[in-house]
């Protein structure tokens, strides 16, 4: 009885400490790490394995930060936009905040109109990561251990209902000239679990204070989408983009058919020519004034294209106010709500297997 009483007392103390989601990591120090190679530099923090800054030259050699961000650590802790965060355990939405796996129903925090968004109320972008390796001119590797919320009572405040313990690793690295790779891996330790990691960086190739991205030209190498209902949950269908406002198979400006898409773009594209290939192109984006171009490759079957529709006068870096359409996100990943749609590619990873997600960006200017 004494041991049991001590356990419940300890659990109560931890629950109190964790009542505020961020307090579980309050004792750990948030640090900034910069990768730099010539004029190309990237800043990462161990809070949420978050991309804070990406600085690249334009066609005249002028340097600009091409991602949106905040001034302070507190801004990132209180963030609701997911600026630059490493998203998990499951990125995007899970309908009804629940799913069934191996005969067990798992209920998740409903942090988005009755659904689960980006891992729930405490996703991977809300926790402290451990820096495993850092070389300023090369790479940074961060790790995080995610616990089974059902296994230990005291962890419920810090995790969000997914089954099993999960070991997670992400490496940001330079490849060649002006190429950035993001290598995400995860290993279930004791139970099968869904895994769908994503990088939620907001891009504006004109610079983060240049205004909206509607004049950016984009090409998306996906001839189909997974349409959604009014809560942005996939219906389960897969439909062609041809003849719709979602068709970016040929390059065109983001704003050219925006009137056809009420509220802006926030949809998963089914990428073409993925079978039998280690990498495939997801998208290219170009901004005419700066001449900057960003090309994106991945090994995942989908890419979520989001035009920052929910930004509403957000105070960002340097006090600049980010408004609707201030940036775009290209989140390569598995399909949204795959755990509830058997016809979608499975996101279930079993013990002994390794989840692998790779993104490669190439930046040029001309």
A few lines on this structure:
This protein has 366 residues and is mainly beta. The chain is 6% helix and 36% strand.
What does this structure look like?
This protein has 366 residues and is mostly beta strands. It has one domain: Beta-galactosidase, Chain A, domain 5 (Distorted Sandwich). Helices cover 6% and strands 36% of the residues. It has two helices and 28 strands. The protein has helices spanning 2-17, 73-77; strands spanning 32-37, 40-45, 50-57, 63-65, 85-87, 93-94, 98-101, 104-107, 116-117, 130-135, 139-146, 166-174, 179-188, 193-194, 198-200, 217-220, 224-225, 239-240, 252-253, 266-270, 280-286, 292-298, 302-306, 314-315, 321-322, 329-333, 348-349, 355-365. The chain has a nine-stranded antiparallel β-sheet with strand order 10-11-12-13-28-22-21-16-19, with no helix packed on it. Strands 18-17-20-23-26 form a five-stranded antiparallel β-sheet, with no helix packed on it. A four-stranded antiparallel β-sheet has the order 1-2-3-4, with no helix packed on it. Strand 7 and strand 8 form a beta hairpin. The longest helix has 16 residues, at 2-17. The model is unreliable at 1-26 and 152-158 (pLDDT under 50).
């Amino acid at each position: 009885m004494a041991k049991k009483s001590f356990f419940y007392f300890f659990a109560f103390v931890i629950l109190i400490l964790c009542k505020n989601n961020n307090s579980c990591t309050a004792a750990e120090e948030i640090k900034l790490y910069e990768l730099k190679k010539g004029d190309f530099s990237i800043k990462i923090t161990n809070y949420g394995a978050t991309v804070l800054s990406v600085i690249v030259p334009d066609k005249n050699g002028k340097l600009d930060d091409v991602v949106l961000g905040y001034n302070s650590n507190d801004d990132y802790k209180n963030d609701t936009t997911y600026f630059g965060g490493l998203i998990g355990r499951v990125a995007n939405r899970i309908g009804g905040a629940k799913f069934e796996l191996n005969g067990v129903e798992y209920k998740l925090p409903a942090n988005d109109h009755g659904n689960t968004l980006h891992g729930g109320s405490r996703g991977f972008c809300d926790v402290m990561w451990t820096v495993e390796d850092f070389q300023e001119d090369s790479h940074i590797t961060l790790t995080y251990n995610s616990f089974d919320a059902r296994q230990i009572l005291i962890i419920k405040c810090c995790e969000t209902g997914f089954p099993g313990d999960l070991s997670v690793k992400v490496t940001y690295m330079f490849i060649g000239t002006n190429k950035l790779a993001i290598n995400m891996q995860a290993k279930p330790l004791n139970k099968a679990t869904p895994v769908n990691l994503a990088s939620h960086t907001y891009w504006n190739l004109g610079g983060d204070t240049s205004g909206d991205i509607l004049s950016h030209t984009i090409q998306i190498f996906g001839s189909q989408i997974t349409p959604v209902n009014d809560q942005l949950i996939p219906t389960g269908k897969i439909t062609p983009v041809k003849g719709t406002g979602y068709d970016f198979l040929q390059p065109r400006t983001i704003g050219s058919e925006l009137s056809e898409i009420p509220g802006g773009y926030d949809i998963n594209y089914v990428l073409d020519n993925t079978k039998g290939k280690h990498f495939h192109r997801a998208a290219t984006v170009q901004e005419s004034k700066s001449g900057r171009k960003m090309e994106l490759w991945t090994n995942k079957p989908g890419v979520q294209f989001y035009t920052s529709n929910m930004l509403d006068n957000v105070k960002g870096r340097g006090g600049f106010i980010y408004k609707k359409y201030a940036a775009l996100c290209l989140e390569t990943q598995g399909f949204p709500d795959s755990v509830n749609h058997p016809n979608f590619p499975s996101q279930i990873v079993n013990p002994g297997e390794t989840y692998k997600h790779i993104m490669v960006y190439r930046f040029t200017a001309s």
